[in-house]
Design brief:
By secondary structure, the protein is an alpha/beta fold. The chain has three domains: about 5-45 and about 60-95 and about 240-320 and about 465-505, 3-Layer(bba) Sandwich (FAD/NAD(P)-binding domain); about 120-230, no CATH class; about 325-445, Protoporphyrinogen oxidase, mitochondrial, domain 2 (Polyamine Oxidase, Chain A, domain 2). It has helices at about 15-25, 65-80, 120-130, 135-155, 170-175, 185-195, 195-205, 225-230, 240-255, 300-305, 315-320, 350-360, 400-405, 405-420, 440-445, 460-465, 490-505, and strands at about 5-10, 30-35, 45-50, 50-55, 95, 100-105, 110-115, 235, 255-260, 265-270, 275-280, 285-290, 295, 325-335, 345, 370-375, 385-395, 430-435, 475-480. It has a seven-stranded mixed beta sheet with strand order 7-6-15-16-17-14-18. Strand 6 and strand 7 (about 110-115) form a beta hairpin. It is globular, with a radius of gyration of 23 Å. About 50% of the residues are buried.
């Protein structure tokens, strides 16, 4: 006689929720994903505006092995269970490695291509900026060694399960510990080692990968460049939305049930254990999903405030400074700009002043750093012939009410910045236009105040201050996603799902 399947309910079909669903289903659990939207993806979705297609969320793809890991896990599980189910499997995940990560532009006329090949990039820096290629190569090498020394401790396991025994992970870090920058800001680290102002600014921007200020973020963030320059940047065959679609297809092949258009209202519990999720469907009818394990992929703030109102909330964690948000313009643009590539950065003239302005007033001021993502460079059918789809973003504070009224001023500053830096008046070329703000992001994704990465990392101990992946108050309650350990961004969200799934297998 076979035992009944264990039931797990996952709140949220974002990247981490999908990955957790795949892992739990492969481990033999009956999985239901509860999602308030009518489709999966969380922040990683797409929109169409006339003939233009846009990925509306994350635009940078690194560490594809984390997706391939889920692909392999699914295929192994399906093969074990039933040969017939292989018909439901999607094709293998397809992507390509880019020969360059980003094109950089400054108003003084300096232009730099960040080639994926680290030696070529170092030589490009030497030729363009006059810095010795060896200095850049050494900086990247240190980033790589730091990443590999620390990844298994800070990214691939819980930092809150202190019953874990020291192992080879800690030994690897210990051997390199004396070379790690434990104190100081990322900006101080880059300034000391690189000195050249353009290059310092280039490497400072990696703090923005988790919504932080390089002048306050810890120097340990110097590991981030390794993912681009050591490991590489990539482009999914179908655009960034291809990641969402592939993960959803993998989960479906494993029998995961999706309750779309269902809004989680409360995580039910009794006797110190969870017993399910109360939700409302599209008809406002109450639906109860019974489960002995609940995983919240929702932002940690609404998880406690709305779904667990009777549970003592970790007030210190919830009150931490939020990461930056963004104002994003989606422009269908006539014409093709050959100097632009998939990822482009137009830097402000004073990076520190820009972040001080954001902190003080919520917006970047008259001289913003502008990020332009053009997926039609890699996927031509995202735009009509001789046109491009521009995803144009600037950093702003996670402050929905204040930033909303500033959008016209931000738009004007962005257009002026593009004109000054590229020498092109793009406004007459815009055929279609829409925009996202912190309010849009909060309403669509549930991210508190529209923060893109949960809490900021503007502290040397930020990694230890993120919310844990396993509840200490309720048995069977777990957390994954960008607002908990190890942090935001596609790779870290995928890792959070792995960590959470491993904890469930250990404790349930």
């Amino acid at each position: 006689m076979s035992l009944p399947q264990r039931q797990v309910a996952i709140i949220g079909a974002g990247v981490a929720g999908l990955a957790a669903a795949i892992r739990m289903a492969a481990a033999g659990w009956a999985v239901t994903v509860i999602e308030q939207a009518s489709e999966p993806g969380g922040k990683l979705r797409e929109e169409h505006h006339g003939p233009y297609r846009f990925d509306v969320g994350p635009s940078l793809f690194t560490w594809p092995e984390l997706v391939l890991e889920l692909d392999a896990l699914t295929r192994e599980s399906v093969a074990r269970k039933s040969f017939e189910n292989t018909q439901a499997l999607p094709p293998p995940f397809a992507y390509q490695k880019l020969d360059r990560s980003t094109h950089y532009f400054w108003e003084d006329g300096t232009r730099l291509t960040a080639w994926s090949d680290s030696n070529r990039f170092a030589q490009e820096c030497s030729d363009t900026l006059g810095i010795e290629a060896a200095t850049v190569a050494n900086h990247l090498s240190h980033s790589s060694r730091s990443f590999h020394a620390t990844r298994r401790i800070f990214l691939e396991q819980s930092l809150h399960e202190w019953n874990q025994k020291p192992n080879g992970k800690w030994k690897a870090a210990a051997r390199f510990a004396h070379r790690l920058p434990w104190i100081g800001s990322l900006h101080a680290w880059n300034s000391k080692r690189l000195r050249e102002p353009h290059l310092v600014q280039l490497f400072d921007r990696y703090a923005t990968y988790n919504g932080s200020d390089p002048h306050r973020a810890p120097s340990m963030m110097h590991v981030i460049p390794h993912l681009e320059h050591g490991h590489g940047t990539f482009f999914p065959e179908n655009g960034m939305i291809g990641i969402t679609r592939h993960l959803h297809a993998l989960a479906s092949a494993l029998g995961v049930q999706f309750a779309f258009d269902h809004t989680a209202m409360r995580i039910e519990h009794s006797g110190g254990s969870v017993n399910g999720v109360q939700a409302l469907n599209a008809k406002a009818e109450s639906v109860f999903f019974r489960a002995e394990c609940v995983v919240s992929n929702a932002d940690i703030w609404p998880t406690y405030r709305r779904l667990l109102p009777d549970l003592k909330a970790p007030e210190r964690t919830l009150s931490r400074e939020r990461s930056t948000s963004g104002v994003i313009f989606y422009w269908g643009v006539r014409g093709v700009r050959p100097e632009l590539h998939l990822h482009n950065i137009l830097f402000s003239n004073n990076y520190q002043k820009e972040f001080e302005t954001i902190q003080r007033s919520g917006h970047p001021g008259e001289d913003p750093t502008v990020y332009i993502h053009i997926s039609s460079k890699m996927k031509p059918d995202d735009a009509p012939l001789d046109s491009e789809n521009w995803f144009v973003m600037v950093n702003v504070a996670a402050d929905p009410n204040h930033v909303e009224v500033l959008v016209p001023d931000i738009r004007r500053a962005v257009l002026a910045k593009i004109n000054r830096t590229l020498g092109v008046d793009v406004e007459p070329m815009i055929e279609t236009e829409t925009h996202f703000t912190p309010r849009t992001i909060e309403e669509r994704t549930g991210s508190h105040l529209g923060a893109l990465y949960g809490a900021s990392s503007n502290s040397a101990i930020s990694a230890f201050l993120r919310h844990r992946n396993r509840s200490t108050q309720l048995r069977g309650l777990y957390f994954c996603g960008g607002s908990v350990h190890p942090g935001g961004g596609i790779p870290l969200c995928l890792l959070s799902a792995r960590i959470t799934s491993e904890l469930i297998e250990q404790h349930v």
